[in-house]
Amino acid sequence: MGLRIDKSVAITVLIVATLMVQVRCQRPKVINLGAVFTFDSVIGRAAKVALEAAVSDVNADTSLLQETELRLFVEDSSCNVFHGSFAAFEVLGKEVVAIIGPISSSIAHTLSDIAKGLKFPLVSFAATDPTLSALQFPFFLRTTPDDAHQMSALVELIDFHGWKEVISVYSDDELGRNGVSALDDELDKKRFRISYKVPLSLHADENSVTDALNRSKSLGPRVYILHFGPDPLLRIFTIAQKLKMMTREYVWLATDWLSVTLDSSLSGEDTFKRLEGVVGLRQYIPESIKMRQLKRNRSMNAYAFHAYDTVWMIAYGIEKMLNEGVKITFSHSKKLTHAQGHKLHLEKVKIFNRGEVLLEKLLKVNFTGLAGQVRFGSSGRNVTGCDYEIINVDRTGVHTVGFWSKNGGFSVGNITWPGGGSEKPRGWVIDSENPLKIVVPKRVSFVEFVTEDRNTSTHHIKGLCIDIFIEALKLLPYNVPYKFESFGDGHSSPNYSKIIQMVSDGVYDAAVGDITIVPTRSKLVDFSQPYASTGLVVVIPNVYDGTWIFLRPFTTQLWCVVLASFLCIGVVIWILEHRVNEDFRGPPRRQIITMIFFSFSTLFKRNHEDTISNLARLVMIFWLFLLMVLIASYKAEVSSILTVQQLPSAITGIDSLRASELPIGYQSGTFTFEYLTYSLGMARSRLVPLDSIEEYERALKLGPNALGGVAAIVDELPYIELFLAERTGFKIVGEPFMNRGWGFAFKRDSPLAIDMSTAILNLTETRKQKRILKKWLCKKSCGEKSDWNQPEPNQFHLKSFEGLYLFCVAITVSAFLVFVLRMIRQFVRYRRSERISLTPRASLSSSPTTTRLWGFMLGFVEFVDEKEEATRSDDDSNNNPSQVVELQGDSEVR
Ligand SMILES: *[C@@H]1O[C@H](CO)[C@@H](O)[C@H](O)[C@H]1NC(C)=O
Ligand SMILES: *[C@@H]1O[C@H](CO)[C@@H](O)[C@H](O)[C@H]1NC(C)=O
Ligand SMILES: *[C@@H]1O[C@H](CO)[C@@H](O)[C@H](O)[C@H]1NC(C)=O
Ligand SMILES: *[C@@H]1O[C@H](CO)[C@@H](O)[C@H](O)[C@H]1NC(C)=O
Ligand SMILES: *[C@@H]1O[C@H](CO)[C@@H](O)[C@H](O)[C@H]1NC(C)=O
Ligand SMILES: *[C@@H]1O[C@H](CO)[C@@H](O)[C@H](O)[C@H]1NC(C)=O
Ligand SMILES: *[C@@H]1O[C@H](CO)[C@@H](O)[C@H](O)[C@H]1NC(C)=O
Ligand SMILES: *[C@@H]1O[C@H](CO)[C@@H](O)[C@H](O)[C@H]1NC(C)=O
């Protein structure tokens, strides 16, 4: 071609050439290239056409390899490593400078070993196994990006849709395994993971594929990543359809094998129907004239374009090598001559001597090919990657719905998902055969929060936390089958760290209960948003502020009785004394005042008035005795309140508690222990585990000096509120600290944690949560939280003085009766004497009995009201009136 030039020019060129550029004359007429790949494959069919086209295009190109013809020897590697190796030796026998191929990554592994041994470049256009880039294979090059590249595109797609766990289905060979391993690495960067791997044998029969897919169905994730070589039959989708896995909740993502398959075959409506909703990647190759020419052959695909570029790349490499004057020589390889395989006649194979040089030139190639820029990165032997289109199959065909660029651009539009919907599948489900296994703490105290009903027949788990969990579940847009399992021995509080550990270890999927969100725990599991806020508080025995402390020793009832008895005593003494004692006489107002003052002044034995009648004195003796006992008890109690209980009030919060050396109680099993020891640095010996409300009360009552007693309890607010509602005499001091919340714990990266958080946030806005709180926590005390209604544990009750009171009342009543009887006797006598001295009242005798009785009663009352001397003057005049006067004077003197 280059020889058809003007003669004069030719002569000039010849002279110059012979003198200076001898090299050019030594250009060989023919340079052979080998190609080894599977002819009968989706890629192979197209690649063959592309390779042949490329060779003829290179030979036709006037600027490249002018005097040299490129010849291509192709050999079918079939689809296995044996055939591949033989085919390679077959083409090596043709004195080739480099080999193109293979397609299969497994064959590529073997051939690159041979290439390494015999030192010839092996350039593949379709073996995408990422591990082939390893330093182990220095003579292996490829013109197509490796799978790691498309995996990062896939992961971006996964991330975009918010899926966290995927199931990978792949061919169990180098391509599949290493591709999935690259996927794993990419997922790992985003903390996503492959939760299940389904390796399929290349030649697996339908049943084993069905079984493998069916097994994966019972797992949670519904995002399937398909990675294998092109499969013209698209068998996997047929099987998935049979298993009803091409439905709404499933996601099928395919690497570029799917686009290659679809592009290379005639797909009808039937195929599209079967593949509806599948999303895949397709290498983005800009349209060009050459491409359209090639595409006239219907089986073209991206890898065929890479094959086309490969030939050009090698041509550029050879051109550069020839330009540098490298001679194309071949020789028998010693390695092959000494090989044991004489029967294979490998010794005849001649190997290109300057393979290393060619490799070096190839790595420096930089040109724009059909499929984009062909240039090897500075870092290694992998070609700079390409961009990907995101394709989506619906009933009408294959559509491009998005784009992923290696430079970081990503966009995706409306996607039709399996089942024909456009709503993004959630990507995971909880199978009803595999319900969510939830562990709940089997509380023994504060069972309002959560516990297992100790009902022998039915294991029923209930509590505040359970109700909130169930309410939150109702807000989720999907159904979550679950089953509860309780944890704990039923005698002591369960170990909450253990519960979290078990969720982290995968024994359970989640934990529901009064679980505080603390950093050590959120390292192990994912928490939902807190549904209740808590904080640690310090509880100490209550010390009343001085204002009402004097009322405290007695119960209200007892105070009332004491007050009433003062009044009664006043009345009784007045009645008994009224007749004989001048002090108790006078105008009614004065009498009432005297009466009240008298009774109250008995308290201090400072009564102005003395009792005269024996009956009154008797009553007074017992009353004073009762009073003495009451006062003594009161004094003792007041002093105990003021002395013993004043002591712990030095604790005003966690800081003073920390500074002290007093023993502290905590709820066993909770994080409080770790917090107090690790974070606050308190000595373990100071901490006393407590299990129930009763133990709380007992330990606090015992006080810091007794064995098992504590000066204060540190626990979370909700428990303490419940404790204070049930027991009085204790109080919270200081501010709550370590403000945290209670949340539900889920296995790491569980998608449920996020949805549950949304639901909980929603729930807290509604009245439902308040209703639940009220239902569980307000059974006893909400609303009427008054310390005075409940008897103080160390108060005196009426019962304590009942006997004494009864005795006193008996004496008083009998004294009163004696008095009344005596009065009646005196009255009768007085009436008789009066009737004798006065004219009988006829009107009185003639009136009706009731009136007469009334008159009699009035007379009696009048008689009783009168002073004794007045009634006595007639029948008992020797009674000395001086006594009264004397007494009166006496009292005035005092
Ligand atoms: C090329 O391959 C090397 C080694 O295998 C790898 O570290 C590097 O990330 C790859 N570069 C690209 C652009 O794929
Ligand atoms: C799939 O597995 C389930 C049990 O997990 C079984 O009942 C069903 O028959 C299996 N389906 C097929 C097609 O094997
Ligand atoms: C496509 O390529 C195949 C294989 O080389 C060939 O048999 C077929 O005729 C070609 N078809 C067209 C339309 O060029
Ligand atoms: C490769 O070629 C392009 C233009 O074709 C050029 O812009 C680029 O800098 C070249 N790269 C290297 C590494 O030479
Ligand atoms: C996606 O769908 C919405 C509504 O169905 C439509 O408004 C929008 O144009 C669509 N976007 C694309 C890129 O097709
Ligand atoms: C046990 O369960 C039954 C039915 O759920 C209930 O009626 C009964 O009160 C429960 N007993 C106890 C001790 O909780
Ligand atoms: C609770 O469980 C954790 C983790 O299993 C363990 O380290 C800790 O010692 C346990 N605590 C008690 C008090 O048993
Ligand atoms: C909260 O619930 C209401 C009604 O139940 C619903 O309309 C709303 O979308 C929910 N919000 C969130 C953030 O889930």
Walk me through what this model shows.
- Among the domains are: about 5-145 and about 295-375, 3-Layer(aba) Sandwich (Rossmann fold), CATH 3.40.50.2300; about 145-290 and about 385-420, Rossmann fold (3-Layer(aba) Sandwich); about 550-640 and about 800-894, no CATH class.
- About 45% of the residues lie in helices and about 15% in strands.
- The protein is an alpha/beta fold and about 900 residues long.
- The radius of gyration is 53 Å and the shape is rod-shaped.
- It binds 2-acetamido-2-deoxy-beta-D-glucopyranose (NAG) (8 copies).
- One 2-acetamido-2-deoxy-beta-D-glucopyranose binds near residues 366 and 368.
Tell me briefly what this model is.
This protein is α/β, with parallel strands linked by helices. The protein is 44% helix and 17% strand.
Write a concise keyword list for the protein shown above.
alpha/beta; 9-stranded mixed sheet; 8-stranded mixed sheet; rod-shaped; disordered C terminus
Arithmetic mean pLDDT = 84
Gyration radius over CA: 53 Å
Low confidence ranges: 783-791, 874-894
Distance between the termini: 155 Å
CATH topology value of the domain at 7-144 and 297-375: Rossmann fold
* CATH superfamily placement of the domain at 7-144 and 297-375: Response regulator
Q: Please report the first level of CATH classification, the CATH class of the domain at 7-144 and 297-375.
A: Alpha Beta
Function: Glutamate-gated receptor that probably acts as non-selective cation channel.
Transmembrane segments: 558-576, 616-634, 804-824
Organism: Brassica napus
Main location: membrane
